[in-house]
Design brief:
2 helices; transmembrane helix; Immunoglobulin-like; rod-shaped; MSP_dom; 10 strands; PapD-like_sf; 4-stranded antiparallel sheet; 6-stranded mixed sheet; membrane; transmembrane
Length: about 180
């Protein structure tokens, strides 16, 4: 039996990081398919943009583990052009540039009966061989971001009503 885990040992759902801009969060689920424990560590190329909780953990046999990913308040993702407040949106999804925004999931064989402190020591002392999976980042938005468009339509209607009322007053004054 190999000391190295396999990507067949777990399911990764979804197969990329999906960030919902309305909540500024995403969830990654790791599901164990084995009777043995697995440990994981997850890193990002942009630690100032994302908070990953937890970034290290132990997956129990045949169990699932949820990893929460949140955008930081100063995240560059929120400053990208497709998320500016003065733009009109419809439903969209967008993969961020993988050379800038990417996560690396490391998977290790590890006894699931041990604790996190033992996992940290294991990773530090043994420098174990694991496998890596790179995960791209997708940003998802929805029509709830179209309030700017709704305001523009209201202003447009209001402008036309104002023009018509003004015109009618002028016509009334001319005729009387």
């Amino acid at each position: 039996m190999s000391d190295n885990p396999s990507l067949n040992d777990i399911s990764i759902l979804p197969d990329h990081i999906k960030i919902d801009l309305s909540t500024k969060t995403g969830i990654l689920i790791l599901k164990s398919k084995t009777t043995e424990g697995r440990a994981f560590k997850i890193k990002t190329t942009r630690p100032k943009d994302y908070v990953v909780e937890p970034s290290l953990g132990i997956i129990l046999p045949f169990q699932e583990f949820r990893i929460n990913i949140k955008l930081t308040p100063d995240s560059s993702v929120l400053k990208d052009t497709f998320y500016q407040g003065n733009m009109v949106f419809t439903d969209f999804s967008y993969f961020l540039n993988p050379s800038d925004h990417r996560f690396k999931l490391e998977l290790y064989k590890f006894d699931w009966r041990r604790n996190l402190e033992e996992l940290r020591a294991f990773l530090k002392e043994k420098n174990p061989k694991g496998i890596e999976k790179k995960l791209d980042v997708m940003v998802v938005g929805s029509k709830q971001n179209v309030s700017t468009m709704e305001r523009c339509v209201f202003v447009d209607y209001f402008t036309w009503v104002f023009v018509i009322v003004t015109f009618l007053r002028i016509v009334k004054n001319i005729l009387l």
